[in-house]
Amino acid sequence: MKFLIAVALITSPVAVGAQNPNQPAKSSEEPEKEKKICRSMNATGSFMATRVCNTAAAWRKFDEITADGAQQTRDAYRMTSAGTLNAKR
To answer: Nearest-CA neighbor of 49 among 40, 61, 57, 58?
Structure first.
């Protein structure tokens, strides 16, 4: 019995040391997942907030689109109201 335990102890470090150090670890093969960022968003006319989660890149694109839409609205308002507000009587 002691002989079997001794053989098991002697051979177990050999099996661990026999791993190929040239092979990369499995965790490095998988691409890292981007961290999700969650925001609470209210739909127009609703009191209930909805939680929306996206990556940082998706939120940047969302913010760009929203800012662009707001700028277009401001520009359209200036074009239509410029003649009426600044007109001399």
So the answer is: 40
